[in-house]
C-alpha cells in the first residue's frame, strides 16, 4: 500500500469512460467488489489506454478504492438495518475517539476472536475496519488470521484487508487500530455533524484516494435538493493536518 502524497498537485481522477466501465462491473456484480484479478486487469487496461499516455500508471489500489467508495455511497442511499447492539467493550481512552457523526466510526474493540471480519457475539452482523500502518488509512477487514500479545502488553491481530492478498497482511494494534466498520451518512443525518466531531473522510491525492480520520472544523448548511445533501464541511485530517471542504458523500 503506497503512502498518499501529503501536498501539492492535482487530485487523481478517473476518466468518464473508466468510471462507466467500473460502474458496469458493479451492476453486473450487484454492487459487490470484483475479484482481485478483475481489478488488476482494469488497472492495467486503464494505464495502457491512449487517454493516459505519458501519465502515472493507474494502480490496483486506486481502482479498488473507487469500488469501495462507490459501495459506501450506494449503501448510504439504501435503508439501514437494525443498529449494532450497545455495550461493546472499550479500551481505556477509546471514548475520546468515539465520533458523534456519520460514516459514524465504530468504537475500538477488544480482539473479535473470530477468523472472519465479523463478530460472533452479535450473530455475525458486526463488521470491522482496521488502520494500516503503511499509509495510515482505514480499510475493511476480510479476516482476522491470528493474534498475539505485543511486548507492551497490547493485543495485536494479523489482518487480511478486503480486496487485498496475503502480501498486504499486517499485524495491527487492536486497541488503537481496530474498530467496528464505519457507516455512510444519509442526507437527512447531516444536521448531526457538528464542529469537533471525529469522522472518517475520503481524501483524494495525486495518486491515491483513501479514507482517513479527520475532525470537523466548520459546517456550511445549504438547502437540500433532489440530489440530496448540498452542505459542505471544513475538515482537518489527523494524519497530515491538511484542511479541505468536503461534501457529505466523502464521509
From TrEMBL:
The Homeobox domain covers 13-77
Q: Which domain of life is it from?
A: Eukaryota
Q: Where in the cell is it found?
A: Nucleus
Q: Which UniProt keywords apply?
A: DNA-binding, Homeobox, Nucleus
The UniProt entry, under PROSITE patterns, shows: HOMEOBOX_2 (PS50071)
- Residues in the DNA-binding region annotation: 15-78
Question: Which regions are flagged for Low complexity bias?
Answer: 106-121
The record's section on Pfam families has: SAWADEE
Q: Where is this region: Disordered?
A: 73-129
GO CC aspect terms: nucleus
Q: What is its main location?
A: nucleus
CDD domains found in the cross-reference section: homeodomain (cd00086)
Gene Ontology molecular function terms on file: chromatin binding; DNA binding
Segments spanning the bilayer are: none
PANTHER family xref list: PROTEIN SAWADEE HOMEODOMAIN HOMOLOG 2
- Protein name per its UniProtKB record: Homeobox domain-containing protein
Species of origin = Aegilops tauschii subsp. strangulata (Goatgrass)
